[in-house]
Amino acid sequence: MNASIPWHTKMKGSLWTVGCEVTTILKLFWSHPRAEPAAAENRDDILLKETLPVYSERNILSISDFIKFPEEHSNTRSNTYRQRFQLNHQISTRKMSTAVAVTHSGLGSGVSQNYNEINHKVVSSTNRVSLMFSIANRIGSLSQVLDVMKDYKINLGRIESRPSRSKSTNYDFFVDIDDASEKVIGQVIDRLNELGIATLGDTPMISQTLTSNTTTGGHMQQVPWFPRKLSDLDMFTSKTMEYGTDLDADHPGFTDPEYRKRRIAITTNALKYKHGDRIPYVQYTAEENATWGVVYKKLTSLYPSHACKQQNYVLPLLEQNCGYGPDAIPQLEDVSRYLQECTGWRLRPVSGLMSSRDFLNGLAFRTFHSTQYIRHGSKPLYTPEPDCCHELLGHVPLYADPDFAEFSQEIGLASLGASDEDIEKLATVYWFTVEFGVCKEGDDVKAYGAGLLSSFGELEYSLGGNDQKPKYLPFSPEKAATTKYPVTSFQPTYFVAESFQDAKEKVIDFAAQLNRPFSVRYNAYTQSVEVLDNKQKLSRFVKEIHSQIATLNAAIEKLPI
């Protein structure tokens, strides 16, 4: 047996996969029913709508990036909390609501060309496709496109824009088109191409966009856009808070111009990264490697007595295969390749804080967004934000464990198309598990949450290592999702999982209760998400299960009695 791959990864056969997929099929029969389509709006008008999403402070906090350390831990999380709310404010204020009617008589005087970040809300419709195009940043460019839409009597359910990544003088636009035939869409594309309006990317410009016809209390539900394939995660790149330029006055590196310059240089990797690229290597300095060494030695000395068995099993494999050790910071590219061999997970560089929705959506694609920069060397055991120590020591090892990897992905899958309220619930569940979770090992309790495994102060505290004793509760997603948590102190309460497998099954049951009118599955072959919303998809899914069962039966028959 190849020692470089965890044994439990190799032992995971078709049995669990088949069982999980059968469970998914069965759950579809208890999914929310679809209501009748709402009455169509006046087809003589082109109504441009943009929905202003409602965020709460907790909603925007992607709890993967909350960390607590023994020194100045009150500043640690209060700063992160404040900065994430600032990110929320920046995003929300740019998503100004518009409702501009364009009639046969021409464009109304109120047409506004708002260059917004990607809005996660779309207006529900019965049949919708998305059209993406790029236009020059000059007066009249958008009006030219809207005139084409008007000529074909097309109704726009959403229009969004952002600065183009491919050409600095352009803006990329994303529009949802309601109830238009494929023929009409093709004619629109041809007309736009004749006008010299460019399409985006190497994939077809039109793609099906999920919408919901369900109603709650007589009101149409709004279903946020969500990624369907790995390359869609590229859209999140420009929506992070770049810590390299946004350090608080109490950050250890605030007054160090060289450190700030270094941070900006490293985060450039993430801003330029696109799916399919190799993660650029960072030539870490001697000081940066020394800082890593201090953290590495301190934390790994506690793992044998405080960390879960999976953490202790995988860490030596990371030392053997990925360059883990006290002497140098491992490279994300090497670690990502190893994780893909173990469980299909991968790392993706990120420049700073992400919204909860974006971060959780990434988990659905077995993708963990990771920083590459490291904390300031003057305080190696303290950081006010996530850095590579937190990611590589707290998160990465357990993504090589199949049960934990599947558990994390279930949270991500549940987040796709979820309402803001449900995103908040899922983010809180993530907080009490992946970040600050503990689990049973015989008669003992061990830590598996990354926030604990990267903070020796709370790692000791969480297992009752000082005068203050935390409270333990059996893990329940329903209970965890509504439990308040402090942001300026250690956790007073921890949820204890029986096992990762048990936690995963509970999250699957919890996700089935969320107010989402569709079901999804992750297709590992295409590394994409499928919405199971018609008989053809369900039939294909069942055939795949039959094929896997046949393979499983053949393998069982070949086993010795």
Automatic annotation (TrEMBL):
- What is an annotated GO biological process for this record, any one? L-phenylalanine catabolic process
Q: In which pathway does it act?
A: Amino-acid degradation; L-phenylalanine degradation; acetoacetate and fumarate from L-phenylalanine: step 1/6
Which cofactors must be present for this protein to function?
A: Fe(2+)
Coiled-coil intervals, chain numbering: none
Molecular function (GO) terms listed?
Answer: iron ion binding; phenylalanine 4-monooxygenase activity
Which keywords does the record carry? Iron, Metal-binding, Monooxygenase, Oxidoreductase, Phenylalanine catabolism
Q: Which residues does UniProt assign to the signal peptide? A: none
The keyword Manganese is annotated on this UniProt entry: no
Biopterin-dependent aromatic amino acid hydroxylase family profile domain mapped to chain residues: 211-560
- Entry's InterPro entries? ACT-like_dom_sf (IPR045865), ACT_dom (IPR002912), ArAA_hydroxylase (IPR001273), ArAA_hydroxylase_Fe/CU_BS (IPR018301), ArAA_hydroxylase_sf (IPR036951), Aro-AA_hydroxylase_C_sf (IPR036329), Aromatic-AA_hydroxylase_C (IPR019774), Euk_PheOH_cat (IPR041912)
Q: What class of enzyme is it?
A: oxidoreductase
So where does Fe cation get bound?
A: H390, H395, E435
| Protein name in the entry | phenylalanine 4-monooxygenase
Q: Taxonomic lineage of this organism? A: Eukaryota, Amoebozoa, Evosea, Variosea, Cavosteliida
